[in-house]
Amino acid sequence: MLALAKAVLEADGIEEALGNGLHVGQMEIRCSDWSLIQALPNEEGFLEIRFELGIETDPLYERPPWVEVECAWLYGLGRILRSCITGEFDFTAARYLATEDLSKYSGLRSTWFKRRFGLLNTGRGLLDEPAPISPWLSSLLSVLLQWPGTDIKGENAASFLAAKTRIDLLDVVLERIVEQRALYGRQSGTPMYVVPTQEGCAPVPRAMRFAIVQPMLPRRDQFDDKEPCRWSGKLMAQHRRHLAAVCRLTYQKLRTWATAQELGEDRSATSEPLVDVILFPELSVHPEHVSHLRALSDKVKASIFVGLTFIESAKHAAPINQGLWLIRTETPGGGRTFQYVWQGKNHPTAHERKMGVRGYRPFQLLVEFPIGADTPTRVAAAICYDATDLALVADLRERSDVFLVAALNQDVKTFDNMVAALHFHMYQPVILANMGEYGGSTAQAPLRQHERLIAHVHGVNQVAVSVFEVDPNTFKSTAKPKPAKELKTPPAGYKGRPPC
Question: Which of 499, 474, 468 is nearest to 276 (CA)?
């Protein structure tokens, strides 16, 4: 989308064309190498567009009356970008119009004239299929499409609103391209996106609080090898009851843990969370049971990363394995919102491949928490076998501050050794949650001697909740004053992560 916006804004005569109703059906896009489109290479002529206006303007692409004449080209650019995301000539349409999927309820449908009054430009509003729609891109679309009466806030929106000319907006896009090019994981070929939990908040100098939840269900033998996405009503009810009980146990454990802290039990009555992040294992929660996690988050004010059970992907016509980030954002007046962001698994295990599961990791997410001495803390997560991808963890070493692994693995000893190696080579805390059927959930950090093992659950067939604090800022730089705890020497070649 950034490469397309750059090419459009650099085209001669584009302002007049956009103002006169230019749409994707009148454009031809050429790329010198489509395989490199995510990497955003810095070369002239990498992406070019050609356009030719039609004789008559389609009413769908006319300037609406609430858009000023001098801002018509901005609205036109928003039309094109949104059409390219949804894959629809009608930029107001939902995905429903292309797929005609009658198997599920997808909201009330209306005319394009009514829809353009209230476009939802978040990832969930644009596509059913999980897609990397960052808050930056959502804010850009909202500003370009100029929904009447909407007050769009935040640093990103302010920079978009300040852009009055094509060159001003091009500068904003080029700045974002430089940022995304620096985040791109070149060894794994993975684009990375930063999603803040609280936009515009100054970081608070304190340690981060984590909880590892180790449930018992579902067991490995409860998955149908021929139909991994299918669950009987009896199994669904059993899993729902178990998840509800595990969430109650987690809440009680966190409250008990809080009584031993300085703020004591009163912390739950304040805006400060009991913990910042709760980690569940791989394949531990059915998508229909996510409401239990929202209720748990409301009680402890935490963001949650969880491995979802297999989901049928319309894009691949096959099951995929992915995790879900429930990113909690506190709003003024005591309210809250949730951002739902998916984290895919690119490397299925041999058993998953026999079940027909396809790899799917279009991007890597970095969740940014306003916690840290000088800069925010970025947390990355991977699904089980992806954590063994050395290309991915090598890319993340310079970009994340904490690495989470949602696992369902019976070879506990191997994954213990993997976490022991990763926490040193990535030089950051590594936290792994495994299913209670196998045990072995652990958290380790590059501290010396006995302090490196922060938490570990031994034994099989156990439900467990581990709670702890860890300060990721200690490992961001090699040039630090003498810390309270003695650290390991950094690995060879490590020069510290750059400021966010």
Answer: 468
Residues 6+ apart with CB under 8 A from 423: 429, 430, 444, 445, 446, 452
Max Cα-Cα span within the chain: 75
The CATH 3.60.110.10 domain(s) of the chain lie at 192-475
Structure confidence at residue 489 (pLDDT): 85
State which amino acid sits at residue 360. Answer: Y
Helix (H) or strand (E) holding 279: strand 277-279
Q: What is the dihedral of CA 153, 154, 156, 161, to 10 degrees?
A: 40
Residues 6+ positions from 499 with CB-CB distance below 8 Å: 374, 375
CB contact at 8 A, 183 and 192: yes
**Dist CA 296 CA 244 (whole Å):** 9
pLDDT score for 199? 82
pTM to 2 decimals?
A: 0.88
Q: Which residue has the higher pLDDT, 145 or 100?
A: 145
Q: How far is CA 399 from CA 208, 277, 488, in A?
A: 17, 18, 20
- Which amino acid, one-letter code, is at 413? K
Instruction: Decide if 274 contacts 254 (C-beta within 8 A).
Output: yes
Q: Which range has highest mean pLDDT (37-41, 51-55, 136-140, 387-391)?
A: 387-391
Quick count: other Cβ atoms within 10 Å of Cβ 366? 20
Q: Contact 155/172 with Cβ under 8 angstroms?
A: no
Strand partners, 453: 444
More confident residue, 448 or 465: 465
Q: Rg of the chain over CA atoms, in angstroms?
A: 24
- Scored b (16 or more CB within 10 A) or e, 26-48 reads bbebeeeeeeebbbbeeeeebbe
How far is residue 310's CA from residue 319's CA, in Å, rounded to a whole number? 6
Contact 265, 259 (CB under 8 A): yes
Tens of pLDDT, residue by residue over 331-348, are 877 788 888 889 999 999
Q: What pLDDT score was predicted for residue 483?
A: 54
Spatial separation of the C-alpha atoms in residues 425 and 393, rounded to whole Å: 9
List, as one string, the DSSP characters of 96-125. HHHH---SS-------HHHHTTS---SHHH
Q: Tell me which DSSP letter residue 404 carries.
A: E
* Amino acid at site 338: F
Q: What is the CATH number of domain 192-475?
A: 3.60.110.10
- Tell whether the model's pLDDT for residue 275 goes beyond 80: yes
